[in-house]
Amino acid sequence: MSTKRPLALITGASSGIGADLAREYAADGHDLILVARGEAALSALAGEVAKAHGVTATVITADLLDPAAPRALIADIEGRGLVVDVLVNNAGFGDGSSFAKASRDKTLGMIQVNITALTDLMHAVLPGMVARGKGSILNVASTAAFQPGPSMAVYCATKAYVLSLSEAVAEEVKGTGVTVTALCPGPTRTNFMDVADVAGNALFSKGLVPVMTSAEVARIGHAAAKRGQVVSVAGILNQIGALAPRFTPRSVTRKLTGRLLASGRH
């Protein structure tokens, strides 16, 4: 792999926002480390960006549900003599079940992937970035981070964590040459709704909010990280929606969000 180009490590890169972020960073002259569970999809993407942009894309399969996976991933990267200049924590998933009825394994797995793995990878690469005086971390949060979400309680809580952590660490590293950005997409055309089983929720089924493409979200996120923006909410209407809870009583926000996320299954 060329040492002349910066290196971006992207998790959840096999599809959706992660794959399109890989395309954005490749177009911007970054070599890539593409991480996800599906090797075939990663290999196809690696070949695509290599052909289109002349970059090198390394494929590493990993299941971040495994608590040992983040450090094993970092050890693999270091064993190849590679240094991560950009970390894109995109891997994550949701669940549209009420807390009491949700699968314990899925609930704890969500916390493992959305919170623990993300934190572990940040903790692994950030000291080196600070020591070198340059680097970028892009954490994919969500507009779900801005309010509690009945029927998606744990998912919203994990994204609130990602947003809060990103903002705090961005302040800690201010002036070091390292930036931390939280990208907050709203509903996006990916396989998220199928995995989370939320297609029947009013928010999604009744077209109450615009659904962006993953390519649109990736362009916004890449641009925000490149300029060092701390929080980037994708889309004007999503920005308005993210502001609304600041001016609305929490009791009202909870009730409204609960109605939007209700599916009739609970």
Could you tell me the CATH topology label: Rossmann fold
CATH-level-2 architecture: 3-Layer(aba) Sandwich
The whole-angstrom Rg is 18 Å
Number of strands: 9
Residue share in helices?
40-55%
Which structural class do you get from the secondary structure elements? alpha/beta
CATH superfamily: NAD(P)-binding Rossmann-like Domain
Helix count equals 10
SSE order: EHEHEHEHEHEEHHEHEHH
Give the CATH class. Answer: Alpha Beta
- Regions with little confidence, pLDDT below 50 for 5+ residues: none
Largest sheet: 7 strands, parallel
Strand content: 15-25%
Mean pLDDT comes to 90
Strand order, sheet with most strands: 3-2-1-4-5-6-9
Mass-distribution shape: globular
Distance between the termini: 51 Å
Number of domains: 1
InterPro entries: NAD(P)-bd_dom_sf, Sc_DH/Rdtase_CS, SDR_fam
Protein name: Short-chain dehydrogenase
Keywords: Oxidoreductase
Family: Belongs to the short-chain dehydrogenases/reductases (SDR) family.
